[in-house]
Specification:
DNA Polymerase III, Chain A, domain 2, 39 strands, 658 residues, twelve-stranded antiparallel beta sheet, 30% strand, single chain, 4 domains
Length: 658
């Protein structure tokens, strides 16, 4: 696998990974007072304090007749008392942040390092400069001890100044928290402190101490080079910041080919108009638990997007984004530095594909598949019961206590598979059903058989392909446990009356294993609450119902296993969770039919339509999508990329202008 740091030298802003070019700008903090005990004040101003216990004065905040000052000898913040007197405490001295305890020490002469002979003043965009600084840090382009970076400045003659990026970031974030996103700055010399202030008079002239300022001490420029360099790891970023122009500059193939980089605080990533917010969220969930960086990416090649967690692969065609690997960030795709060739193959190279006659009707298949999915278990010791079983026209799912079993009108001849991680196929079908432009009506199926543990079943939709790993083993013979005849039929007029009764059961009783017993009477059924031994501990009320004798059988529907702990005087007893799962499948409204023989035999629980799929009277009209032209020409890709980026307006770095 290609290492993320193989790109040793970068010359263009757009070649730097997107994730390194996005900052989470800190929100503004409204300071109510300059009291050292105030949490907001300590949070914002405390970053300038020293942690050196040998210099206790610098660990606190100093109040004198001029104003307040906090410094660690590398960076400094000063606010004048003349303009902010209402925020100042009455006492003067050095005080500890948080406790407010006075520090008995002498504060250094901080005014001596504040230059007041500055002529050249520059204005910078705080977010822009902060983004550049954090990019150097995130990309590890600078020395990891000194965090050295060179900046260009000077209006008449270009000069170089070196700074510690960690200290500069602290100052920029401080002003953002104070509500300023534009700063004036002045540099008297490469070995003198750099002054920042939201006011021009705060960095120029003889009255600097009348305005709030921050000061950053520079570091020695050892070598004249653009941007940042880490000799230890042989990494270099020639993309550099020109302070006098407030501009990020690219360097071409030749060092003299210097041009401004394209920086837009709202232009962050690729967004395909065919991606829905739910779809991107579904993709993020699929790859969220992977522990390989390559699996955190979306692969896009020749207009097809692929994601995987190695068990399930999902393809979507018609993607108008250049080839490459992309990370999912803030609901959009950003270019990754990983190598596209390292992305895992969907199927083994020696796989043999098996075609099957027949296909499933989309709406019918989805309806029954989702019902079966609601019944699958989560016991890893019984992996077959964690899958959805499809056998030609039969779909079934079970967790050992409930079983959904239904035959479709459409079928695929010879198909017999157990789908591992079945929820992702359901998620894709949800996206397809919600997409007005998708014209999927039928589902085709293929199976790829290759090396060990590489057998996969492929479901082909209009724009989607879903490869699901097939669970090894044999699905239980569900037909053998279904009663041949059911003698009793109980019809509850309204399912919601059962759910209302279940609400009377407390969470503690559910945790202890609550049981619900059914006892039919004349025109109504009594619901009783029992404990794990089967003893009645409460009455849950009566629900309207009717009872009759019958002598019928059914091979399909929702079957469940009653609790054997119910007394013989009850018709049957169900565990709270079993009954809840059954209602989730049946639906929470309408009539419910319960067929049974006795208190310990399998029950058949069906809703009013007997789980037969009912097609919509007015099916959703889906527009056919025009075929997407494959982007093979590099120039055409670049043009398309620019168009997409122009539409990608995500507010990540937006700050209110002060």
């Amino acid at each position: 696998m290609k290492n993320i740091y193989d790109n040793r030298q970068v010359r263009r802003w757009e070649d730097i990974p997107f994730t390194w070019r996005v900052v989470d700008a800190p929100s503004q903090v409204k300071i109510k007072s300059f009291n050292p005990k105030d949490k907001d004040f300590a949070k914002v101003f405390g970053v300038f304090a020293s942690e050196d216990e040998l210099r206790p004065a610098m660990t606190g905040v100093n109040f004198d007749d001029k104003g307040l000052c906090v410094t660690d000898a590398h960076k400094l913040v000063y606010f004048p008392k003349s303009k902010y007197a209402q925020y100042f405490p009455k006492e003067e001295g050095i005080f500890e942040f948080g406790s407010g305890r006075e520090i008995g020490d002498r504060y250094p002469n901080y005014t001596a390092v504040i230059s007041q002979n500055n002529d050249e003043v520059y204005q910078v965009d705080v977010v822009k400069l902060l983004t550049y600084c954090k990019m150097i840090i995130e990309g590890k382009y600078c020395n990891q001890t000194t965090f050295h970076c060179n900046f260009v400045y000077g209006k008449d003659k270009p000069k170089m100044i070196g700074v510690n990026l960690k200290f500069l970031i602290s100052i920029l974030e401080f002003w953002l928290r104070m509500g300023f996103n534009k700063l004036f700055m002045s540099i008297e010399a490469p070995n003198r402190g750099v002054i920042f202030s939201p006011y021009e008079k705060g960095v120029k002239g003889k009255n600097i101490l009348d305005y709030p300022i921050t000061l950053l001490m520079p570091v020695m420029v050892v070598d004249d080079y653009f941007g940042a360099r880490d000799l230890d790891y042989d990494r270099e970023c020639l993309v550099h910041y020109v302070i006098s122009e407030d501009e990020i500059y690219d360097v071409g193939d030749k060092m003299e080919d210097v041009k401004p980089a394209t920086f837009d605080r709202n232009l962050t990533s690729y967004i395909d108009p065919n991606f829905s917010a739910y779809e991107i969220k579904m993709w993020s969930k699929l790859i969220s638990k992977s522990f390989m960086p390559i699996l955190d990416c979306v692969k896009i090649k020749i207009g097809v997007a692929t994601i995987t967690n190695l068990t399930t692969f999902i393809n979507k065609s018609g993607i108008n984004i250049p080839d490459g690997l992309y990370n999912i960030i803030n609901g959009s795709l950003s270019k990754s530095t990983l190598d596209i060739d390292d992305f895992p193959n969907i199927v083994a190279k020696d796989s043999i594909v098996s075609e099957y006659n027949g296909k499933f009707e989309f709406d019918e298949f989805r309806y029954h598949y989702d019902n079966a999915l609601k019944c699958v278990g989560n016991d890893e010791l019984r992996p077959t019961l964690m899958s959805v079983h499809i056998n030609e026209s039969l779909i079934e799912g079970s967790n050992g206590k409930i079983l959904y079993r239904q035959k479709l009108k459409t079928f695929v001849d010879g198909l017999d598979v157990m789908i591992k991680e079945p929820k992702w196929l359901s998620e894709v079908m949800y996206v397809i059903d919600d997409d007005q432009t998708n014209s999927t009506n039928d589902i085709r199926v293929q199976i790829y058989t290759g090396d060990y543990n590489s057998k996969k079943v492929l479901f082909v939709f209009d724009r989607y392909e879903v490869y699901c790993r097939i669970e090894e083993g044999k699905y239980p013979n569900t037909q053998s446990i279904i009663p041949s005849m059911l003698a009793n039929n109980l019809v509850v007029d309204e399912i919601s009356s059962i759910t209302d009764a279940m609400k009377l059961i407390t969470k503690e009783q559910v945790k202890e294993g609550a049981l619900i017993s059914f006892k039919h009477g004349e025109g109504a059924t009594e619901l009783l609450l029992a404990d794990t031994s089967g003893s009645v501990i409460g009455n849950l009320g009566m629900v309207k119902s009717s009872y009759s004798n019958k002598n019928e059988s059914s091979e399909t529907g929702l079957f469940c296993m009653p609790s054997p702990k119910g007394a013989s005087i009850y018709d049957f007893t169900l565990e709270f969770k079993v009954l809840k799962d059954c209602i989730d499948v049946c639906g929470k409204k309408g009539k419910i039919n319960i067929d049974y023989n006795g208190s310990t035999t399998i029950l058949l629980m069906q809703n009013a339509n007997n789980f037969d799929f009912i097609a919509s009277k007015e099916p959703k009209k889906k527009a056919k999508t025009a075929p997407v032209k494959n982007m093979t020409d590099e120039n055409e890709r670049k043009v398309q990329e620019l168009r997409l980026r122009a539409r990608a307006r995500i507010r990540i770095l937006a700050l209110k202008s002060n």
